[in-house]
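input
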Amino acid sequence: QVILMSASINCEEFAHYFALPVHNGLNPACVFKLEGRPYAIEEYYLDDLKHILNFKLPSQRIEEPVIVREMYEVAVSLIQSFDEMEMKSSREEENRSVTSGRGSVLAFLPGLSEIRYMHSCLSDMPNKRWQLYPLHSRVTLEEQSSVFLTTVPGYRKIILSTNIAESSVTVPDVKYVIDFCLTRTLICDEETNYQSLRLCWASKTNCNQRKAFHEGEITITLFSIQRCPLGSTVLKIKLLDMGGPKALLATALSPPSIGDIERTILQLKEVRILLILLNQDDGELTFLGRVLTHLPVDLHLGKLIVLGHVFGCLEECLIIAAALSLRSFFVVPFKQHVDGYRNKLFFAGNTKSDCIAIVNAFK
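output
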């Protein structure tokens, strides 16, 4: 018995994929829905806020996902309006103090550069009792932990976050969520087979969960098999002798394109991981390929480790491969990236090499 659980799973797609054959067709898998007690959420789009804010929507093309300067200004004005709305509400409700229970603001931005710009816009506002907190994987652990601190009485907490919140972070006392509906997604380039973060519009599922951020975790909606390198998957198929990669991957829930599979096989042959055979399109595993299937790293980094063993510098290659498998361990405090870069140059010495800096810093 296998049970799949998710707050944003496409139930119909999974149910039909795992359907069981019956005498007159297919019977979809069972779906159980457990309804929780929802939070009271009011959702507003920019058009709904024209009676609150005086702004003109800038022209923007759907093909070019970007945050223009005017949208930052709208967001700042919106945060200012929260103060005015709560002040008016407090006067209507028995003249309670405006400083009691000011709700926190959570703004979703796609990356660190956008967080820095928004932080600067908010910091430049005079006489505002705001506490600003960046929430990004590149900022220090101490800066990330400060998000959960209790706000100074009379101040409003403003959290500028990316989708780092997808790792089940729950921020208390969030009352307002501003979503720019953008995210940076890890995409595998078709030609080079390298991964990079690209700015794109957030999916509807992401946006729906962001508005209820404090309820639970945010889930990734893109299938990994469609946006990640297929090299390791193809090698596992060859190692387990499960047939042709193209035929097997075509049976996946959301299969990759035939072109991506063919490019992956060609690149594996170019680096001598697959052997070129005249009577077989996808080739056979070489000795190097069999070794790499047992290393839990990217194939290029695995080859680096093998060559490090061959040339007698295994320790250094292991350090470099481990560091390149993760985010940089060179900590850069928020808005101090110049000092962080200088520290990295110190470890690199005269080489100006990231890899040498990694080895020297580790040792």
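quick obs: Confidence is low (pLDDT under 50) at residues 96-100, 213-225.
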